Amino acid sequence: MAHIEEHPDWLARDLGEDYGIDIEAELTEGGLHGEILKVQIKSTVHAERRNGRVALPIARRYIEYADTCRYPVILVLVDTKAKEAWYLWLQDWLLKIRGAEGRLDLDQSSWTCWVPEQQTIAAGLSGDLKSIARWKGETQLILSLMDALRSAAAIYDRTTIDVLTSIISSKAPTVADASLNALIDQAINLGDRMRGTPGGNQVADQLFALVRRHGARISRPTIHDLVIRGDSYSRTGVTALGILYDEFFEHLKSLNLPNYFLKIEPHVAFYCGFREAFPAEKSTNLFVDPTGFVFAGLEYSQPDMFWDKYANRGPSALLDYLAPSSKV
Fold first, then answer.
1. What percent of the chain has pLDDT over 70?
2. By CB neighbour count within 10 A (0-12 exposed, 13-18 middle, 19+ buried), where does 74 fall?
3. Contact at 8 Å (CB) between 87 and 76?
């Protein structure tokens, strides 16, 4: 509070009991324009430091709040003995985790982020925190696009979704891989939600096209969301996976997908293993025949008129005729 109140460009409001948010900091430079940060404060008598970084503990409840809050949520760690304070923008941290490292563990109650020692509140108030409050930078753009996608899908506004997916595609070359994967992840989830609605299937297919268009940068967690549906797999997702192997083979091979899916969905693991063992077998080949290939304890048994089934179902038709292998 003292750091903020003493700064000429900020004012602070003590919020008291406000669902875990302690104070609100508003930028006053150039007047009041609603440029607000929500601030949660944690204190310690001795901050843990290592190699020029400070350990900042993050409780699950802070993440859950930040994920739904439309204002930037800033977590601050105060060392009461050293009289220093460091900050972390929670939405930015969460975006990078989701886009690059996968899902947060649902059973985990807290995390630790190591922030640079120079990332102090004193420094941030004159620099980075101003930009965050003003919604400058890639993170705010990505969060805004994700919100817009969510809103358009909620009212089944196909025209708006068409425009948004075009914007996302045009921005893709200029945003970080984690941001792109976060947007694709949101598109996949919204596409699934819209299936079965008027025009929903067409919208979903357009959203999935983002994956195909930017497959060279797609992450393994995003492929997981594309393919896996509950305890099984998505036929559309497997079709997109086949196209990714066709067009971005080296990148997909680097993700070690056969072993990744081994315990999650053996049928998908079989398909990934087959595609990597036989890279010349494209998903457009109606006469593909994995007979004799064994992976994940499964082998393929070719049905009658297999080409007709493949033409109607795509690569997922191969998964329909997998059975436990008798081979060791």
1. 89
2. buried
3. yes
Query: Is the confidence at residue 53, as pLDDT, over 70?
Result: yes
Residue 197 in this model has a pLDDT that exceeds 60: no
Q: What is the SS3 string spanning 42-87?
A: EEECCCCEECCEEEEEEEHHHHHHHHHCCCCEEEEEEECCCCEEEE
Burial class (CB in 10 A: 0-12, 13-18, 19+), 16: exposed
Question: In the prediction, which pLDDT does 177 show?
Answer: 76
Give this prediction's pTM.
Answer: 0.72
Distance CA(15)–CA(316), nearest Å, equals: 54
CA 199 to chain centre: 25
CATH number 3.30.9 given to 2-134: no
Supply the pLDDT for residue 102. 56
Tokens of 101: 């490292």
Ranges of each domain in the chain: 2-134
Helix (H, G, I), strand (E, B) or coil at 236: helix
Backbone angles phi, psi at 243, to 5 degrees: -65, -40
Does the pLDDT value for residue 82 go beyond 60?
yes
Neighbours of 116 (CB within 10 A): 11
Q: How far apart are CA 283 and CA 276, in angstroms?
A: 12
Please give the mean pLDDT across all residues of the chain: 85
